[in-house]
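Table 4 source record.
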Amino acid sequence: MSASVTPLNFQSPDVPEDRARAGYYALLARLFYSGPDAPLLEAIAGPGEMVADGGPLAGPWSALAAAARAADPEAARLEYDEVFVGTGKAEVTPYASFYLSETGREKILVRLRQELATFGLGRSEAALEPEDHFAGLFEVMRHLISGGSGDAALQKQQQFFSRYIEGSFKGFCGAMSASGKANFYKSVGVFAQTFLVVESEGLKVF
């Protein structure tokens, strides 16, 4: 399993809350791995299992669904490239270590690779992105949620989240909000930040 694969098919956990969490991580991993295609935009725009029913996610999800309904697939894919890839330097850097200034990037990557190995995960040979790409980190969280339940599983999730995501996601999402090239991805960034704030609070008990 790669830390940067497109996360489309997975075995959902039995707990409804965990199934929703895994689904949101899978969606965000897909959106940050590459620009959305028409079926993905339609899935976000329409009713379905991904809809956040009430709570802090409801408003950001509604805004994201509206943005998906208004988005042209080709324009959204082009926007992804302009925002996260760019020519020379991306306007928004999609790598967590960029926002974790207290530790050198190489040290973060070495520790991350070692930790992924303990999970039986690693970057595929075909992948070009380093392991700290947010798409990969979100896919790892999806894997950890889907792979087990109970306090031990939650502790693994909390430790991984706190090391690589908690200190980096606000800078990443804030950069999306400030991007002059982002349109659809502004709504993605707002939803991502709201969801990750909820995750941060929910995982603090472990």
